[in-house]
Specification:
The complex is a heterodimer of chains A (568) and B (319).
Chain A: E1 3-11, H1 15-26, E2 31-34, E3 52-53, H2 64-74, H3 81-100, E4 107-108, E5 111-112, E6 125-126, H4 133-147, E7 151-154, E8 157-165, E9 168-176, E10 182-192, H5 213-221, E11 225-226, E12 231-240, H6 251-258, E13 261-263, H7 286-301, E14 308-311, H8 317-333, E15 343-352, E16 355-356, E17 369-371, H9 388-409, H10 421-432, H11 441-455, H12 462-479, H13 493-517, E18 540-546, E19 549-555
Parallel strand pairs in A: 1-2, 1-10, 2-7, 10-17
Antiparallel strand pairs in A: 3-6, 4-5, 8-9, 9-10, 11-16, 11-18, 12-15, 13-14, 14-15, 18-19
Helix pairs in contact in A: 1-4, 1-9, 2-3, 3-9, 5-13, 11-12, 11-13, 12-13
Chain B: E1 2-9, E2 19-26, H1 33-43, E3 63-66, E4 69-72, E5 87-91, E6 98-100, E7 103-104, H2 106-116, H3 136-145, H4 153-157, H5 169-180, H6 189-195, H7 209-213, H8 220-233, H9 240-255, H10 260-268, H11 273-288, H12 304-318
Parallel strand pairs in B: 1-5
Antiparallel strand pairs in B: 1-2, 3-4, 3-5, 6-7
Helix pairs in contact in B: 2-5, 5-6, 5-8, 6-8, 9-10, 9-12, 10-11
The chains are: A alpha+beta (568), B alpha+beta (319).
Chain lengths: 568, 319
């Protein structure tokens, strides 16, 4: 089996992974940058049509401490303040660095243009016209990665296990989808940058490849996860009519630039009934808007597809065109004329606040194992502000890359081939199975997605969560070992699906268990059987694997020391 | 609606010979080609290999030929392709190494070429306050070019790549333009020097297929022409095609019409003995058939001075 050696191994090549690669290389490390899709194309970054929040203060006076306060407020008391502070303080540096690498942020009057977004107290959200932020920043990072000869890119490799010994990460075992070979990677440091878990949900807004692998890999390797119950549901994801070639969460910039009314099935405004003040002002935070839309639908006042109407008919066409030019034409190609018909929107899984538990160097409790981007848990607490995700990808990516490269200077790898044997055997056992009567991995994935949407979605109850947990455990015990995969080696998508499914089930279990244990409603975690927040639960839930069992404990949120910052 | 998909197959583990599989399936009226492929894989043939990631036309992974034309499967609506009958053919791109079925080697197809033009920004010194401040107007022209999302459709449409896979292609050349014309870039000659080499800008035949294919209206051909102009204006004209252009213009300017003998010799290059030798048979044939005067003399046409003045005026205006 091929064995590759590097200083820093990065799993996942979206925004965070690419930034980490660049940062590690400029500290002198050799880097292997892997993606199970194509490097720089898979993942969520390329999908982000929206904005990047950073207190660069060009639109109006701003300071990172104000951004920090806004982030904490949205996080409902559960933010890891050290991580939030890092995100807010270093965000501006990263925005300007991206500018120097060629990203052309939208500008007006000689400065970077910054827009308002819900939950922010200043206009601080940068973007690239028109709805092109994600593709543009991804292209910048792809080129920058290409410029650096110390970075080796490998596409179509999925990692199935992080190799550890005595509490230290030494590399990983992966499957090369292109030729079906198992590959081992020896590394002084490993960075998990494989994004979030949106693929666990039937209704989701991200790429089709975010199966929560970063969380499962971290857990299996002995690291801890935190806040796994906090999945963000984007309130106004596009439901109908069918939208081709556009991101379902595209309506957010429409709302912050133009307003736009959120109406129920009877064409009445309703968000104010749930404690929000919306009225086309677009100030209701994401969790509140999701709640309002689904409650309205539950009461029989939803739109035909179980959501709400988003209505721009009161806005003149010339205003629509001035703000979104070519996007209006692409909508028309989809048969959507905003001046004539409202669209249907509703919540969908969008982002994961929880994730791998790290310190402010992005390191887990396993030495040499780091996380970056959405894979990291804690910076956004119980609810993430609009615009913080790309900032987090840049900032945490940079921090993870430079920390890992620095650590790598003092480490050597005590590699033994037998460390990779278990993963190798697992895959071989799967491949040698010739039964054709088992269920296909992709069918189990679909079942899990529906199970999670119905039982661990925007609104949860103890009974539903318990049912989900039972079925997940059954799938792990009975179904996963008996799946059928085709016997091909080159580009065998069944094998890839199986690897993904295995991670999805582990990650789903951590989400459901954490949601079950949090007997309150807070931020993105809404329990119908416990509709109120409970001050005694103002704690983070940490999960880990002990003797093959997922166990959890509670811990007080990390706070910045008064009067000073503890990171640096 | 019921549709039959005729899908290109190639399995390197079997005989590696291209073939085709037919799948007939029932689809919703608003289905895309990617929906259909996923359905085929889920329900009838799990050995079918294809790429697909974002599903929304952003990542570009699912690029393939739908009824012969390059499309992203996730944005190709099935009803648009069955107007002549309920059959759709799916093939990988035309001129790329196929790994299996519809999966091809993206790096060989486009990325390695894009990398060759050094598509990164190098600014003069450190920018003030971390920013390269320039007027918005100066970036207007580049804005469209910068909306490129590396889909590669321009390379697929290119008519040179099928005969010469080493041609840099419109995607890479447009990327060179994006940096050569970025006012923040400290040395715009860098990219020009790269693309004026063999297999670069001079190999483009101006068929405008790249412009027809680009989903973002970036007009790669226009960018290639601009790079050629930039090369001329910076005095980088030593490629054969460049010399051809220069000789053509010089001949008309001086004599009022084209001196074909001079054009041939100057295009090959006066020091290019091998190239000049290649011209000999053609010259001999022309002489034998009375197509060339003996002794070889090129005279001015009447009023050649007036033509020269037009040239001089144009050159003045360009400055």
């Amino acid at each position: 089996m091929p064995n590759l050696t590097t200083d820093v191994l990065i799993v996942g090549a979206g925004g965070a992974g690419m930034y980490a690669a660049i940062a590690a290389a400029r500290k002198g490390a050799s880097v292997l940058l892997l993606d199970k899709s194509l490097v720089g194309r898979g993942g969520a970054t390329v999908m982000a049509q929206m904005t990047v929040a950073a207190a660069i203060g060009q639109q109006e006076p701003d300071d990172w401490t104000i951004h920090f306060e806004d982030t904490l407020k949205a996080g409902r008391g559960l933010c890891n303040e050290e991580l939030s502070a890092l995100l807010c303080e270093e965000g501006p540096k990263r925005i300007l660095e991206m500018e120097q690498w060629g990203t052309r942020w939208a500008r007006e009057n000689g400065h970077i243009k910054q827009e308002m977004a819900p939950g922010h107290s200043r206009r601080r959200c940068c973007y690239v016209d028109f709805l092109n932020t994600g593709p543009a920043v991804a292209a910048t990072l792809r080129r920058k990665v290409g410029e650096i000869s110390e970075i080796r890119r490998i596409s179509n490799v999925t990692i199935i296990e992080i190799v550890t010994k005595d509490g230290r990460a030494l590399g990983a075992v992966g499957l090369n989808v292109l030729d079906g070979e198992v590959v081992t990677f020896q590394a002084k440091a490993v960075i998990l940058a494989a994004g979030g878990l949106t693929k666990l949900y039937a209704r989701n807004s991200a790429s089709a490849n975010m199966g929560g692998e970063a969380y499962a890999l971290a857990l299996w390797a002995g690291a801890e996860l935190v806040d796994m119950e906090f999945v963000q549901f984007f309130p106004i994801g596009h439901l109908a009519p069918r939208l081709v070639g556009m991101d379902p969460i595209m309506w957010d910039p429409f709302r912050y630039k133009l307003g736009g009314k959120l109406l129920n099935g009877q064409f009445e405004e309703f968000v104010d009934r749930y404690g929000g003040t919306d009225f086309g002002q677009y100030t209701a935070t994401r969790d509140l808007a999701s709640y309002a839309i689904l409650k309205e639908a539950e009461a029989g006042r939803g739109s035909p597809h179980g959501g709400a109407y988003l209505d721009f008919r009161h806005i003149p066409e010339n205003q629509l065109r001035a703000a979104f030019g070519p996007v209006i034409d692409r909508l028309l190609l989809n048969g959507i004329d905003l001046t004539k018909t409202p669209v249907e929107v509703g919540p969908m899984a969008h982002y994961h606040m929880g994730g791998v538990r790290v310190n402010n160097h992005m390191e887990t409790r396993i030495n040499g194992l780091y996380a970056a981007g959405e894979a990291v848990g804690g910076a956004n607490g119980a609810n993430r502000l609009s615009g913080n995700a790309i900032t987090e990808a840049f900032v945490f990516g940079e921090r993870a890359g430079s920390s890992a490269a620095e650590a790598a200077q003092h480490l050597h790898v005590d590699w033994e081939p037998k460390l990779a044997a278990a993963a190798f055997e697992r895959l071989n056992a799967l491949r040698s199975r010739q039964s054709s009567d088992g269920v296909r991995p992709v069918a189990l994935q679909a079942e899990l997605q529906n199970l999670m949407w119905e039982n661990a979605g925007p609104f949860r109850t103890g009974a539903k969560l318990a049912a989900a947990l039972a079925r997940i455990q059954q799938m792990q015990r009975d179904d996963l070992p008996n799946v059928t995969v085709t016997d091909e080696t080159v580009y065998n998508l069944d094998l890839l699906d199986w690897c993904e499914l295995r991670a999805m089930l582990t990650t789903a279990e951590t989400v459901v268990r954490s949601a079950l244990a949090r007997n309150e409603s807070r931020g993105a975690h809404q329990r119908e059987d416990f509709p109120d927040s409970n001050e005694s639960m103002l704690k983070n839930q940490v999960v880990e694997l002990r003797k093959g069992e997922i166990v959890s404990h509670w811990t007080a949120p990390v706070q910045l020391h008064p009067g000073g910052k503890s990171h640096g | 609606m019921q549709v039959t998909f005729k899908v290109y197959r190639k399995d390197p583990e079997k005989d590696g010979k291209p073939g085709r599989s037919n799948y007939t399936l029932e689809l919703a009226e608003d289905a895309t080609v990617l929906d259909a492929l996923l359905k085929i894989r889920d329900e009838s043939d799990s050995t079918l290999a294809f790429r697909g990631c974002c599903g929304r036309g952003y990542c570009g992974e699912c690029m393939m030929r739908v009824n012969g034309s390059a499309r992203l499967a996730c944005t190709a609506k099935v009803p648009d392709y069955i107007k002549k009958g309920p059959e759709i053919s799916l093939d990988p791109l035309r001129n790329v190494p196929v790994i299996k079925d519809l999966v091809f080697d993206w790096d060989a197809f486009m990325w390695n070429k894009i990398k060759e033009v050094k598509p990164w920004l190098e600014t003069e010194g450190s920018p003030v306050n971390g920013e390269n401040l320039i007027a918005d107007a100066a970036m207007q022209d580049l804005r469209k070019v910068m909306s490129c999302f590396y889909c590669g459709m321009c390379d697929e449409g290119c008519t040179v790549l099928p005969v010469d896979f080493d041609f840099l292609g419109p995607a890479a050349l447009t990327k060179a333009y994006r940096f050569a014309f970025d006012p923040r870039n400290k040395d715009s000659r860098e990219q020009v020097k790269i693309v004026e080499k063999p297999k670069g800008i001079w190999d483009c035949v101006h068929c405008y297929e790249a412009d027809e294919h680009c989903p973002r209206g970036i007009e790669p051909t226009k960018r290639i022409v601009a790079l050629r102009d930039r090369a001329f204006n910076s005095g980088i004209t030593h490629e054969a095609v460049a010399r051809h252009h220069a000789s053509f213009a010089a001949s008309v300017k001086e004599s009022g019409w084209l001196d074909e003998g001079r054009l041939a010799v100057e295009s090959e290059g006066l020091t290019n003995v091998k190239g000049l030798m290649k011209l000999l048979p053609t010259a001999a044939k022309a002489l034998a058939r009375g197509k060339a005067p003996i002794p070889y003399m090129h005279s001015k046409r009447p009023d050649a001075d007036k033509i020269k003045k037009i040239f001089e005026k144009a050159e003045q205006e360009e400055k």
